[in-house]
Write a structure and sequence with these properties.
about 260 residues; alpha/beta
Length: about 260
């Protein structure tokens, strides 16, 4: 086992299980979790003994999205600055998952939204607990998706479903996520860890060189715009975080009320 401050990595039988470990914050992505997750993924990339990866969360969430508490505390006079820094880390995480020439399985154990949904969508396969809850979770606070969301989620669900998630921002369950193609499999909560483990072990015992080449082909055929989209999203979320609507959305989030957006 390897541990960082906010990530735990277990390695056995060719499978590295990487768990985001900020359970009290629902594994919300802050600067430290971003840095630790980058290091854990680098370990998986460089270690030839790792033949498959499971990415999951501890506690009640997979990853609830960007840490808005951190964003509010670290904003200073520029509310966009935390997103300028956080998106750099998120983009690196997503790029490393896609470029890693090993299968990556997201084991979605609980709540997932925002940046967490981008991370899950970047993985090669997604298996979810039946108790997991999903939400786009950007536009409800006056932000826009990042981490490749606007490329990866439409590829999985289709343009219409992705538009529905963007503009209506529904909270939906794992059964619905399976129905729209966002996940590959749904299992009972107690079965998530063993099911993900069996799947990853099967992948680890497979023809990993052909998997690597096949993943490269998928990236080349479907994700040629990923780097460009990551940069466009980075610019857009910085712009959105400088709006009055974001400040209202942030205030409403902490005051637990509906936001009153003015389009400014």
């Amino acid at each position: 086992m390897m541990e960082w401050e906010t990530v735990v990595l277990n390695f056995r039988d060719g499978v590295a299980t990487v768990a985001m470990n900020r359970p009290e914050q629902y594994n919300a992505l802050d600067f430290k979790l971003g840095d630790d997750l980058v290091e854990a993924l680098e370990y998986c990339i460089k270690n030839d003994g790792v033949r498959a990866v499971v990415l999951t969360g501890t506690g009640k969430a997979f990853c609830s999205g960007g840490d808005l508490i951190m964003a509010r505390k670290s904003a200073g006079t520029d509310p966009s600055e935390p997103f300028r820094q956080l998106t750099k880390r998120l983009n690196r995480i997503v790029a490393d998952i896609r470029s890693m020439e090993k299968p990556v399985v997201a084991a979605i154990n609980g709540a997932v939204g925002g940046a967490g949904l981008s991370i899950a969508a970047a993985c090669d396969l997604r298996i979810a607990s039946s108790g997991a809850k999903f939400r786009q979770a950007y536009t409800n606070v006056g932000l826009v998706p990042d981490g490749g969301w606007t490329l990866l989620v439409p590829l999985l669900t289709g343009f219409g479903r992705a538009s529905e998630l963007l503009f209506l921002d529904p909270v939906f369950d794992a059964a619905r996520a399976l129905e729209i193609g966002l996940v590959n499999q749904v299992v009972e909560p107690a079965e998530l860890e063993p099911s993900a483990g069996r799947l990853a072990k099967k992948l680890a015992s497979g023809s990993t060189r052909s998997f690597a080449l096949a993943k490269r082909l998928l990236n080349n055929s479907l994700l040629t715009l990923l780097d460009r989209q990551l940069e466009l999203e980075r610019q857009a979320i910085i712009q959105a975080a400088g709006t009055e609507d974001y400040l209202e959305g942030l205030a409403a989030f902490f005051e637990k009320r509906d936001p009153q957006f003015k389009g400014k």
